[in-house]
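Example 3.2
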Amino acid sequence: MKPLFLLLALVSTVFADIPRKQPLTKYMQLVSNSPFTSKPPPPDGPVAGPNPLEDYALIGVAPVQGGFRVTVINRKKPDERYSFDSHRKDTENNFEVISIERKPGNPLGTVVHLSQGSNKGTVEFEPELLTLKTPPPPQQQQQQRPQVPGQPPLPTNPADPNARQPRPRVVQPPVPTPQQPSGGRDNNRRPDRR
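Structure, written as tokens:
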């Protein structure tokens, strides 16, 4: 067994090539396909961008003949409201109701599944968009009344029912006395003393 091993070692050294330096291009693939520098593979399906249905919130679901009428509002532009029926496709704004999930006992828990073109999504009620904000009351200009000495100050808010209201002062006009003729004497007058 020893001679066979030696014979094989001798034959391999005779026919062996001298080692040579390899070109750098042979190892460039290791650098370019490194797990630290390579980009991840592209996803198999289409790349999903921002869903435009995320900009909408549900503000109303009402039963109508044949289905429901759904009203949505654009969160970024609250003046934009869209109403459409669940049994018909809205051709103007391209909305279509896929399904409506109503929760018994919780009307604000309703979820509407919509599609707008190729985009699909859900819209729900948002309580902060449902509350009506009352405008502030108009400010009334308060008239400054002069303070009369010896009287309590007048109330500053005339709409306050607990404020003390001043009693209006009524002054009777003087009753005119009958006039006597100019030649006669007035009995009520004293004579002049000089």
